Amino acid sequence: MNAADNRLVLALPKGRILEEAMPLVRAAGIEPEPAFDDPKSRKLRFATSLPHVDIIRVRSFDVATFVAFGAAHLGICGNDVLMEFNYAEVYAPLDLGIGSCRLSVAEPNELAESDDPRRWSHIRIATKYPEVTRRHFAERGVQAECVKLNGAMELAPSLGLAARIVDLVSSGGTLVANGLKEVEVIAQVTSRLIVNRAALKVRPEEMTQWIDRFRDACGDRHAA
Ligand code: PRP
C-alpha cells in the first residue's frame, strides 16, 4: 500500500455523481469535515467524523487510478471508467445504483438521416473513452480512429474534428442542444463502490465491513 499512513482513504468523484453519492457516504457513517462543503476551500483531502478515515475528491477517471495504485483504499466511480482502464487491481463488489446514464455513439442529425451504422468500416470518433470505443467497434470489424478529448465532445462534429462522438448521455439534453442524435448504446452506466485488491487482502475485516456498510446504505436508500 502507498497510503501515507494507516488511515483509510475514500476517493470520491467531483461533479454530478458526488451529490448522489454523499447521502450514501453519510448513511455508511462517514461525515466529512465542514471544508468539504465549502466551495471556497482549496483542500483536496478531508478529515471525517471517523479519525481513521479521510476523503479525497478527484476527477472520476482519477478515482479508479488512485484506487488501482493503492493510494486510496476505496472509491466510487462509474463502470464507464472501469471499462476504459480495466485495472486488474480494482475490485468492484457493489453497484450503488446511482449516476445512471449510458455510454453512446452520437452523430449530427443530418448525418443520422441517411447513415447506416452496419456499413461503417473506418470511422473517426471524438471521445474521452478511446479504449472502450476501439474495443466496441473492433468486435464487429470496424476500425475506430479515436481523437481523445476530456470534455465538450459535442463540439467535435460541428467543428470538423470528428463526425461522431462517444460520450455519456443522461437526459439527452446536451446532444439535442448541439444538434446530435444518439445512434447506438455501448453500455449502461451506474456508479460502483470500488476497492483496492491488495487492501482487501491486507485489511480484510475492515474492507469487508465497509463494503457491508455501503451495501446497507444502498438498501436504506432503496427502501426510503
Ligand atoms: C456529461 C457528458 C455530457 C452530458 C450528458 O458531462 O459528458 O456532456 O453530461 O448529460 P445529458 O444527457 O443529461 O445532457 P458533464 O456535465 O458530467 O461534464 P463533463 O463534460 O465534465 O464530464
Protein described:
This protein has 224 residues and is of the alpha/beta class. It folds into 2 domains: 8-99 and 190-223, 3-Layer(aba) Sandwich (D-Maltodextrin-Binding Protein, domain 2); 101-188, 3-Layer(aba) Sandwich (D-Maltodextrin-Binding Protein, domain 2). Helices cover 33% and strands 30% of the residues. It has helices at 16-27, 60-68, 79-85, 109-114, 130-138, 173-177, 197-202, 204-223, and strands at residues 8-13, 45-47, 53-58, 74-78, 90-95, 101-108, 122-127, 143-148, 164-169, 180-189, 191-196. Helix 1 crosses helix 8 (204-223). It starts with 7 loop residues before the first strand and ends with a helix. The model has no long low-confidence stretch (mean pLDDT 95). 1-O-pyrophosphono-5-O-phosphono-alpha-D-ribofuranose binds next to strand 9 and helix 6.
